[in-house]
Amino acid sequence: MADKHHIDEVTGTETTGHEWDGIRELNTPLPRWWLWILYASIIWSFGYYIAYPAIPLVSSYTKGMLGYSSRAEVAKDMKAAKAAQQVHLDKLEKASLEEIRTDPELLEFALAGGRAAFNINCSQCHGSGAQGFKGYPNLNDDEWLWGGSVEAIHFTISKGIRNDQSDEARASAMPAFLKDETLDKAGVNDVAEYVLALSGGGSDAEAANRGKALYAENCVDCHGETGAGNTELGAPALNNPIWLYGGDKATIVETISFSRGGVMPAWGNILDVATIKELAIYIHSLGGGQ
Ligand code: HEC
Ligand code: HEC
User: Fold this and answer.
1) Looking only at Cα atoms, what is the longest distance across the chain?
2) pLDDT tens profile 88-114
3) How many angstroms separate the alpha carbon of residue 178 from the centre of ligand 1?
4) Nearest bound ligand to CA 137?
5) Backbone torsions φ then ψ of 168, nearest 5 degrees
6) Which of 109, 144, 177, 241 has the fewest C-beta atoms under 10 angstroms from its C-beta?
């Protein structure tokens, strides 16, 4: 043991008396103020343990004397938010689509609600940006199978398409021309060439010319003389570069041969009245027309 009151020559600091191989330990205690803060924090933490939920037990936890619970706080906030929404939801339920669209506050609320409902219910088929996939229409463009007015969109969403959930579902089926033996392979080929020509493509003018007669006979009723389509029948326009299933020849031949018959659920059976209105208004805002 070395001298207890030894003073280190270099720093002028007292040493603790510990010495190893001639190396001495300086005695530099924590500052007083620091220690007091430490003690105060410990005392404060005991107060905290008593006042607030703190110590985990086997299947629960100490609840604290103030009865605070972050879960209860969230529930309270959510209830308040819901009550604030309810005012708008009640209005939405009663208002016509036209009234909602002309009331800026209600419109903003409907668009936000529609966007949220779309992400949850529709994006898996139509894409998160409503851009669509093969067989699932893009909802951003101004091309509509079943009509792009807000009323038509509302109807399509509530009743769905070719489903057995609603008696009023949009329904109309393109015949499967090859399967039903209305056309043979050569006929399908020719009419496909004519469809390509309608949309500004195609390379076999002779076949297209033969296809024109077949088109007039078999296709005009639904797709129209110029190929403009018919929203009453869900028949897409064939005279532009927007395709539901694809505009390459093989895909067109496939569609004509076997038809397609895309199905969409009747959302009116699944979602509430206000949500369907929100969705119709949101979808219309993406690419609606008249
Ligand atoms: C299970 C897949 C699926 C889901 C989910 C789905 N859709 Fe569809 N939707 C389709 C298909 C397929 C079509 C095209 C049917 C056809 O060929 O006519 C379609 C068509 C539409 C159309 C008509 C487009 C047009 O051009 O006229 C609208 C509007 C639409 N969907 C909105 C919605 C909304 C809103 C939701 C969510 C509430 C939704 N869809 C969810 C499959 C789906
Ligand atoms: C009863 C109405 C009806 C008739 C008749 C009809 N179609 Fe269609 N067509 C549709 C519908 C509805 C669709 C949408 C796809 C589906 O659901 O089968 C469609 C889709 C198509 C498509 C796919 C378009 C795309 O965007 O991918 C092509 C191509 C087409 N039809 C060509 C024809 C040709 C060619 C004929 C005549 C040989 C014909 N259709 C006759 C109703 C009809």
Assistant:
1) 118
2) 999 999 999 999 999 999 999 999 999
3) 27
4) 1
5) -100, 10
6) 241
